[in-house]
Fold Octopine dehydrogenase,Opine dehydrogenase,Tauropine dehydrogenase.
Amino acid sequence: MSNLSDELVATAKRISDLKTNMDMSDVIHIHDWFKQRYYKQISDDSSVSKCMRTNQAYSQFVHPMKAVENGYVPDFEYRYITEDIPFGLVVMKGIAEIVSVETPTIDKIIKWAQSKIGKEYLVGKGLKGKNLKEVRAPQSYGFRSLDELLNFIYVDMRSED
């Protein structure tokens, strides 16, 4: 989680460097976010792992499991993977990709998850898999640069007024 967060913070920093008028200050490391958001519910905030393990708000969270012959296995068809990966992490990877931020941790997670759900978004280090059109990554819409993405967002937002 910490390494993944490092990659997202680096992406926000790159965007700020490229577009100095964009305020990305709300993008903070997950460790800082845990400490700010759950400061009353965490008994040990010394690391991301400790924040998660000692967070009273998370005490009832478990990953759904499936019964199998010799016990239980994770239910890889549950939304934590089938929704959060393609509509969360793949989108974040797409934004990082268009601003040229390396994402080895995100890549590792996406590759693992796509193998569990039978999808292909990431091939090598790039979002060019056969199922990419099913997600909302910038590459799904043909955007290859930050300017293209921002122009679309700003034009789309203005047209809604």
